[in-house]
What we know:
There is one protein chain. This protein is of the alpha/beta class. It folds into 2 domains: 13-47 and 304-399, Aspartate Aminotransferase, domain 1 (Alpha-Beta Complex), CATH 3.90.1150; 51-298, Aspartate Aminotransferase, domain 2, CATH 3.40.640. Helices cover 42% and strands 13% of the residues. It contains 13 helices and 12 strands. It has helices spanning 6-13, 17-32, 51-62, 79-93, 107-119, 135-142, 161-167, 190-206, 268-281, 289-298, 305-322, 344-353, 378-399, and strands at residues 38-39, 102-105, 125-130, 146-151, 172-178, 212-216, 239-244, 257-261, 334-335, 356-357, 359-360, 370-373. The chain has a 7-stranded mixed sheet with strand order 2-8-7-6-5-3-4, sandwiched between helices. A 3-stranded antiparallel sheet has the order 9-12-11. A two-stranded parallel ribbon has the order 1-10. α3 packs across α10 (289-298). The radius of gyration is 21 Å and the shape is globular. The N and C termini lie far apart (52 Å). The protein binds pyridoxal-5'-phosphate. Residues 43, 107-109, 133, 178, 182, 216, 218, 244, 246, 252, 257 line the site of pyridoxal-5'-phosphate (PLP).
Amino acid sequence: xxxxxxxxxxxxxxxxxxxxxxxxxxxxxxxxxxxxxxxxxxxxxxxxxxxxxxxxxxxxxxxxxxxxxxxxxxxxxxxxxxxxxxxxxxxxxxxxxxxxxxxxxxxxxxxxxxxxxxxxxxxxxxxxxxxxxxxxxxxxxxxxxxxxxxxxxxxxxxxxxxxxxxxxxxxxxxxxxxxxxxxxxxxxxxxxxxxxxxxxxxxxxxxxxxxxxxxxxxxxxxxxxxxxxxxxxxxxxxxxxxxxxxxxxxxxxxxxxxxxxxxxxxxxxxxxxxxxxxxxxxxxxxxxxxxxxxxxxxxxxxxxxxxxxxxxxxxxxxxxxxxxxxxxxxxxxxxxxxxxxxxxxxxxxxxxxxxxxxxxxxxxxxxxxxxxxxxxxxxxxxxxxxxxxxxxxxxxxxxx
Length: 400
Ligand SMILES: Cc1ncc(COP(=O)(O)O)c(C=O)c1O
């Protein structure tokens, strides 16, 4: 007798690649010892939170005896925190936004779920460039939506605007992008976003319901080689930014993020009302009081990104020397190299034999590649060099 719904039962049996790698990694670590296994499978930030987080906690502790310190609040968040976040985001996005444009959420994941619940009719579609963050498909299925994956451009994973246009149907409700991208490390340029904005404006004119552009940006703070992340708000009025402090403040477990609506969106207050309502009925109710008060103190601060820069350079050097083909990430903390031999599942198995854990690109809708997350201590990167080299040599040998 099945206790689970068929859908959740199916999802669980198919369980994600990341989950499988996690289990395989745990087994390898038990067998060979933690130190011997180079685990690049998880995107869990490992840097200490910046000092504002501790100051925020101290401030909360000093008020802990106030009766409402941890009480319910207005569902979109503390008004003062929304004000200060809006001011901060105005600077970050280069577009002036105000309190009523922003709702605090339980991470980017919570924000995305609120948004999808608020706007999707069952069977409506969300176009998303692939490869993409695995969870999008599951979030959509929570709300009866269908993911329409559209492959990004071959090679460097830029947006394929023509393919996105071809994917439009009368059921399309949203285009969901993620920049800097997990897993590819790509950042979409001003030109790409302008083209996408123009396309969406045309599509909106023909659609009976508004089409939204949603930009998921938890890695906005982490860019390399002087790359910048242009704001979608500059290119399309019906745009929404969803993000969090999981990565820039190393607060992933604290579940604090936000949804930001374009200040000139014609149906902005209706959508905000919908978001506040779905935040409530999905059971989030409001973003955590602790998280809100922490970010109030820590806004504008971030983890020491020079550590990620150093790790990116080290890993690029190791992969380059071993002969891997890849585009160094412009942002985020992932590499997405080509799998030597072409079969990503088989190649990650070979890497596993060499005690290096990576996730097959197939798990992100990007077969033929594999993902490496560099939120790992430097020594893990240093120790991985021989394993990467041997795995490459084994492919070379089998080709002979
Ligand atoms: C692209 C992307 N979007 C959203 C999330 C969810 O982040 P959060 O912790 O803010 O819910 C992640 C987490 O890894 C991510 O990589």
